[in-house]
Automatic annotation (TrEMBL):
Superkingdom of the source species: Bacteria
Residue numbers carrying N6-(pyridoxal phosphate)lysine: K49
Domain named Orn/DAP/Arg decarboxylase 2 C-terminal: residues: 18-354
Occurrences of domain Orn/DAP/Arg decarboxylase 2 N-terminal (ranges): 24-266
Subunit structure: Homodimer.
Binding site for pyridoxal 5'-phosphate: G218, Y356
Organism: Flavobacterium caseinilyticum
GO biological process: lysine biosynthetic process via diaminopimelate
Keyword Lyase: yes
UniProt name for this protein: Diaminopimelate decarboxylase
Keywords: Amino-acid biosynthesis, Decarboxylase, Lyase, Lysine biosynthesis, Pyridoxal phosphate
Role according to the record: Specifically catalyzes the decarboxylation of meso-diaminopimelate (meso-DAP) to L-lysine.
A Pfam family matched in the record: Orn_DAP_Arg_deC
Length: 406
């Protein structure tokens, strides 16, 4: 996409605005499948928590993707978008047995990550095909909030608890069809990933009726010019060879599963915001935009960097700005960032806004959530309308007049 296209979309649909480039999503999906083309049975389950708009789900479905879900609501969205139940994986954390049973009744693949629920579910439903999430105790990920495979993580069943896990499976006669792991997001060192994979292989040897191994995801994408990223091609070459060797050893052709989210949609996303005010203080020039961490919380929550461009005047002389939002708390998107000279009314574009941006948006300060647009075949298609005041009031109930006047 070009800057002029983004400016046009901001004019057409208003700001703030999320825009997603369908072609980029498609190319990332193709890149991943090509990297693992030597694996006979490969399955990609899109981690829809990254971006759960049903139009995006439909787009990925057309490419052959399955879904990785973490809540019953995501399962329902996947079914609504047209996915067959058997193409949906459900990997919750800390949910009730009742929710797991409700999802199971929909025909979705269940993935269980704690011994208590595993024993309860296996006792009641021994014939249901179940996947087990293992915690490999491998520290990986670009931020403590997204490193989920270390020893103090709440996610997964510890590899050190395998004897207990096996005993539960033997006692309940459960049908274990898959083993799963996820170490964290923004994994750069593929050797760490390969090391964790060996732990998964070791765990898999305890189960004789497996159909698949799920290696999670967490591949790092570039956030700025010349930024480093996970070498998917090198990982594909090394892990494919090792996986195929394990299948020979296991005596069965297993399915290799990945569940990428950020990798597929992050670089496809642009967040567009209008500059409300340029404010000079004694030491800083602030560019205040018509948004805040209610729409893009990642810089504040993760310390993430999103490249910012002035797409209204991209050729202007570069100056240093602190880009801030309109929330009545500190919501700084960038400190002392070099950007083409900004004037009030200009449109700024935040790159890498496809993953965990709209999906983490809120109505804080009773602000509306932005619209979403899919750029496809040279056109912008509205896939979520901008919220209105009626949306804010929806589901709220005013007190009866008699109570309100007490």
């Amino acid at each position: 996409m070009q800057s002029k296209d983004l400016v046009q979309l901001a004019e057409q649909f208003g700001s703030p605005l999320y825009v997603y480039d369908a072609e980029k999503i498609q190319s990332q999906y193709s890149r991943l499948t090509k990297a693992f083309s030597k694996v006979e049975k490969l399955r990609i389950n899109y981690a829809m928590k990254a971006l759960s708009n049903v139009a995006i789900l439909q787009l990925l479905k057309e490419m052959g993707s399955g879904l990785d879900t973490v809540s019953i609501q995501e399962v329902l969205l996947g079914l609504h978008a047209g996915y067959e139940p058997e193409k949906i994986f459900y990997t919750p954390n800390g949910v009730s047995l009742e929710e797991i049973e409700e999802v199971n009744a929909m025909g979705v693949q269940i993935n269980i990550d704690n011994l208590s629920i595993l024993e309860q579910f296996g006792t009641k439903h021994p014939n249901v095909p179940v996947c087990i999430r293992i915690n490999p105790h491998v520290m990986a990920g670009g931020n403590a909030n997204i490193s989920v495979g270390h020893i103090d993580s709440k996610f997964g069943i510890s590899v050190h608890q395998l004897p207990h896990l096996v005993r539960i499976v033997e006692n309940t006669k459960m049908n274990i069809v898959g083993i799963h792991m996820h170490t964290g997001s923004d994994i750069l060192d593929i050797e760490v990933f390969l090391y964790a994979a060996e732990i998964l292989f070791d765990a898999a040897r305890n189960f004789k009726n497996l159909e698949f191994l799920d290696f999670g995801s967490g591949f790092k994408v570039p956030y700025k010019k010349d930024d480093i990223e996970t070498d998917i091609e090198e990982l594909g070459k090394k892990l494919s060879k090792r996986f195929n060797a394990f299948c020979t050893e296991y005596g069965k052709e297993l399915t290799l599963i990945f569940e990428p989210g950020k990798f597929l949609v992050s670089e496809a996303g642009f967040f567009l915001a209008k500059v409300n005010v340029v404010k000079q203080t004694t030491s800083t020039v602030f560019a205040g935009i018509d948004s805040g961490f209610n729409h893009l919380i990642r810089p504040m929550f993760y310390g993430s960097q999103h490249h910012i461009e002035n797409i209204s005047h991209p050729k202007g002389k570069e100056r240093f700005y602190s880009v801030v939002g309109y929330i009545c708390e500190t919501d700084t998107f960038a400190n002392n960032r070099k950007i083409a000279e900004i004037k009030e009314g200009d449109i700024l574009s935040f790159r890498n806004a496809g993953a965990y941006c709209f999906s983490m948006a809120s109505n804080y300060n009773s602000r509306y959530k932005p619209a979403e647009v899919l750029w496809m075949n040279g056109e912008g298609h509205l896939i979520r309308a901008h919220e209105t005041f009626e949306d804010i009031l929806k589901n709220q109930i005013m007190l009866p007049s008699a109570l309100a006047t007490v």
